[in-house]
Design brief:
This protein is α/β, with parallel strands linked by helices and 234 residues long. It has one domain: 3-Layer(aba) Sandwich (Rossmann fold), CATH 3.40.50.1820. It is built from 6 helices and 8 strands, in the order E-E-E-H-E-H-H-E-H-E-E-H-E-H. The radius of gyration is 16 Å and the shape is globular.
Length: 234
């Protein structure tokens, strides 16, 4: 499927071209969608992650479309299970995220929707690099337990409002997020969730992540939508 058929809000599998490979994704577009959020999974995760699917459902309820995308092919995932090196190749992951962004911007049913990213672990670094590469397309970024530090020099070029969420008990990642936060020059916020570990498995922790993400994405994607559809817009 190329995403050209009518949707009625249910999730549909899509195939996204990204250079020499084709990536699998699940696209959900609720009726009267006000924006779209592209998920960038991190190490050892996939579009089937229950944590990502939980957040995606909450975003769908808020009239935000979602794309849960595998940034590695099944063959690459099999290799990565043995070597664990592709999940840390944020250059490769960000290139594929840019390709997926361009694909969404070319589809008739999604190109009008303001775009945000939701990244986790190394996927957060890929999201920030991709946001720096596509500043006119990406309107907001959320990182959950991410490694924004791995975005390196791209951090200073990110223009999209960026929310970093990290668990209080994820000690090393807290420090790395604080260092990356200092390098961001865009509108930004760092939230440390009390008592939470890396996967936010504690009671209520993932709920807090999901609500923080929804609030941030609703705010900035709605602002982008208002600028497009406001007075004088075609």
């Amino acid at each position: 499927m190329d995403g050209s058929r009518e949707w009625k809000g249910e999730a549909r599998m899509v195939r996204v071209p990204a250079g020499a490979v084709t990536l699998d994704g699940d696209l959900s577009v609720p009726e009267r969608a006000r924006g779209i959020v592209l998920f960038a999974h991190g190490r050892g995760s996939s579009r089937l992650s229950p944590r990502h699917r939980y957040v995606a459902r909450l975003l769908n309820e808020a009239k935000l479309a979602t794309v849960l995308l595998d940034l590695l092919t099944p063959a690459e995932e099999a290799v990565d299970l043995r070597t664990a090196h592709l999940r840390f190749d944020v250059g490769l992951l960000s290139e594929r995220l840019v390709a997926a962004t361009d694909w969404l911007m070319q589809r008739s049913k999604t190109r009008h929707l303001p775009l945000g990213y939701f990244g986790a672990s190394t996927g957060a670094a890929a999201a920030l690099i991709a946001a720096a590469e596509r500043p006119d397309a990406v309107r907001a970024v959320v990182s959950r337990g991410g490694r924004p530090d791995m975005a390196g020099p791209a951090l200073a070029r990110v223009q999209a409002p960026t929310l970093l969420i990290v668990g209080e008990a994820d000690f090393l990642v807290v420090r790395l997020n604080q260092e990356a936060f200092a390098k961001l020059t865009c509108e930004k916020r760092l939230v440390i969730v009390p008592g939470a570990t890396h996967l936010f498995e504690e009671p209520g922790a993932l709920d807090e992540v999901a609500h923080l993400a929804r609030e941030w994405l609703e705010r900035y994607l709605a602002l982008a939508e208002a600028r497009v559809s406001g007075p004088g817009a075609p």
